[in-house]
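Limitations
The structure tokens in this dataset are predictions for the assembled complex, not deposited experimental models. Users should treat interface geometry with appropriate caution, especially where small molecules or nucleic acid strands are included. An illustrative entry is reproduced here so readers can see what is and is not provided.
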Amino acid sequence: MTTTAPPVKDRPGDGDGAGGGPAKDERLLGNPALRKLLGRPELGAVVGALAVFLFFSVVADSFLKTSSFGTVLYAASTIGIMAVPVALLMIGGEFDLSAGVLVTSSALISSMFSYQMTANIWVGVFVSLLVTLAIGVFNGFMLTRTKLPSFIITLGTFLMLTGLNLGLTKLISDTVSTKSVSDMQGFESARKLFASELTVGGVELKVTILWWAGLVALATWILLRTRFGNWIFAVGGNAEAARAVGVPVRLTKIGLYMGVGFCAWVSGQHLLFSFDVVQSGEGVGNELIYIIAAVIGGCLITGGYGSAIGSAVGAFIFGMTSKGIVYAEWNPDWFKFFLGAMLLLATLLNAWVRKRAEATR
Amino acid sequence: MTSTPSTPGTTTTGGTATTTPLVELDDVSKYYGNIRALEGVSLEVHAGEITCVLGDNGAGKSTLIKIIAGLHQHDAGEFLIDGKRTTLGSPREALDLGIATVYQDLAVVPLMPVWRNFFLGSEPTKGKGPFKRLDVEQMRRTTREELLRMGIDLRDVDQPIGTLSGGERQCVAIARAVHFGAKVLVLDEPTAALGVKQSGVVLKYVAAARDAGLGVVLITHNPHHAYLVGNRFVLLKRGVMAGSHTKESITLDELTRQMAGGSELEELSHELAKAPAPAHLGGRPVDGGGHPVDGEGNGTPPGGSAKP
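Predicted assembly:
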């Protein structure tokens, strides 16, 4: 964030006794930096993340090892890459229930297209990008044209994609998983981009963490510093008002769905190049985890409020919880319970923080 | 109509205008299928003047607004902007010609900061290519200055606009229209949902816009507010024009009487005097003719004894 606005020189007001241009308004009590911090959407999530971190540091001995850090970050990044566009979409006032299976679709398309055409794997990767973007456009177009709730539209896409993933894979490969493509041309270079590992300071980090960080930074830039970002907040906060002042509401929403398509493509390619073989039934249920990460991160489920950094913190909480339970040597069945409790607590905390922040204004 | 070119400086208070109106409707009609929404309405908007459009619910005020704002096209009559015949195809076209409309309820996005709202849809940018970004400094500063100039001293342009009062929100929306170069300002019931004090703030602001040389169309159903600031008054009733007056030619009492329906009001007081309270509200049962069954004569009027 930039600094506060420069003082206004020619103050016509008399009663405020602050001649010479005060740097801040005297009616603003307290520390402006603290006030600004309290007004951030991701504050609740950061507090929650600290609590989860402390909790597992105490109950799980191996949680604090540097190697565990890489594992936790990896788990967080696989969710985080998708939580970013889902958060943006939620700020724009919409859902995408098809996001989970779209990741699987993206992996299936690259794998099967390249295999069937015996083409360079990069051809499949490129075709997959086109298809996922097209599905994003389809979602956005259907939504803005029919004016039905996005819940219904993307529930439809979700079911259709689930069926297509299974049906087409069985039709083409005769099994529910794809054939191995690891010996095909271009596999190694694509693997480098989507599923390589690098060692930083003794910690093994997956490349998805870089993708994740890059996407969060890009999304934050878009949200806070571009016209498109302004429009995202506006279409989620009050679409009619946005339309009335000339914001292209339909294009903004279609763009957001294309963002989901793009990230699903990244995520799907990672899936393909790290496991080589793709199970066509995967991905169902993940869409809810993305939404949970965004909501824990402070996105308002009704739209118009939230941040990309918040979604990253939400994903990080997810990563810590899923791996922390393993390090604590508990039954992983408890994971879902923790996730649910976390969602409720974080949402309550967010609501409370937001109320406090607005009251201090 | 004279052919004198319009000069925004020549304010003609009182309606004896000799300049070309910024916007003029002449005998304009609008039909939705076979429903008459508006018929034979004429009005003039001059620079530095406020033209008030008064009417009850369903009188055709919103249809009139939509024609001026470019959302709908008129079916008959003439729509002149700066003396030229026009048909507006879209709100964008109207904006480009300097006609800005501020709607009562869809003016702002409540959760967004004031400065983001102020520039929504017309955000200034700096930088090139992928580094093209919002000019945040300028946006914040301009918002603060524009609001200050119109007499609104905000504590913090970063506060969500939803935390402002209804009147302040209207003022921000109006200031925005003025800043983006509107020549004609169309205000849809700006004081409808506001208290007395807030209405005063908005009316002061409307007067400030008028004094800045803008032509203002003020839609309202409050004759008191209209008479305070208006130069011309157009009364609508069920889609047709029920009267057109300048401030000299009409008193507040007469405007109020006409606005309230005049003769219709008298009729209503008759009806109220006659009608007995319904049984489920504690009244006595009535026969088919509306008379109480127990034959005691007239029922008690609910609002006291209103005599015509």
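Some entries come with short summary sentences. For this one: Chain B is about 30% helix and 20% strand.
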